[in-house]
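Fold this sequence, please.
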Amino acid sequence: MKQNLSDGEADLKAPKTVRTSVCIPRPDYEELERFSRKTTSSVAQIVRDAVHAYLLSRDIPHSDADNNGAHS
């Protein structure tokens, strides 16, 4: 059942991240899993960090408010 929320309430409940799906070659994924076990980071966190580092390396502007979970 869908809840009717005012605009302000909807903004408070809106997710600050976006779910996505990517296909990664099996050898790369297996390496990510190995690294994940060594560092106690999840594969998902490693991928988020890598995307963030990639964007920074390309000098692509972003808002920290829109980039929850990523490290500067």
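Residues 5 and 12 are 10 Å apart (CA to CA). The helical segments are 7-13, 26-39, 43-57.
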